[in-house]
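Today's session is about reading a structure prediction critically. Students often jump straight to the picture, but the first step is always the sequence itself: look for stretches that repeat, for charged clusters, for runs of hydrophobic residues. Only then move on to the predicted structure, which in these notes is written as discrete structure tokens rather than atom positions. Here is the chain we will use throughout the hour.
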Amino acid sequence: MTYDRLDPESAVAEAATSFSNWGRWGADDRLGTLNFLTEAKRLQGAALVRRGVSFSLAQSFDMNGPQRGWRRRTNPVHTMLDTGSDAALGTQGMPHGIGGADDVVAMPLQCSTQWDGLGHIFDHGKAWNGRDAATTVTSDGDLVTGIEHMAAHVAGRGVLLDVGRAISPSGELSDGFAITAEHLDETARAQGVQVERGDIVLVRTGQLARVRRDGWGEYAGGPAPGLSFTTAGWLHASEIAAIATDTWGFEVRPNEFEAAFQPLHQVVIPNMGLLVGEMWDLEALGEDCAEDGVYEFFLAAPPLPITGAVGSPINPLAVK
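Below is the predicted structure for this chain, in token form.
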């Protein structure tokens, strides 16, 4: 499918209609494509554990993160409420010498490794499944598809598509590189793995490795490799449960249309109901997969059950 670069409005409208899942799981659905992640898929994922080695796919949640203030997003602020010094000084008021430490973190829910909930993006005032955005997500939060509804579901077969290694000799795609459906299929063939219905697909571009080496720069919100708008059909036809990348915005940036902002988000979240993850750390997992040639694994990545949230920080675990 081809689109006019000067007409994002028509392209989004056409893709939204062609790849809509509205009503597919009933009018009351809160899970979107997570409906594809069945009990059988979790059993399939669990059966992939052979070595017992695990990989955290989360970036660090600290002040050294990538955020630069866009949309008032900041890096996490970690503050101690009680410390060992307080205990040693005897200022905690505890009996018989016991002491302790407590702390608090303040952060936007999408400041580091995270899921975009179904209430995160709207299309012409419509939220997932055709709901009115104004009454679905209010100042009280997402009243219908809050991310807490997904907390028990995100575990199953994970598949890594290491497009960076498959396409680029350096293992890192350049900023602005648009990953097409052909690139995804080519990578899967090269790795000897198949993407199946209900999978959680991880796409490594190598951008995170580059910014760790060279500095954050514009990682948060700036140019990046990512999925082409033309992959909307692939994402719909494959019936995957979720997809996550090692980039800030999942889709290629700059976007492929003039005067557009995240058009693929506008199609896949409110219309397709696809769970999208961003800023995942796929480096150690990618190295291991390249070494042993196995690109499928058990993946557990539940969001925090924050009532009414439209996103959640996560610590995904891949187990091989």
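Discussion point for the tutorial: The longest strand covers residues 155-161.
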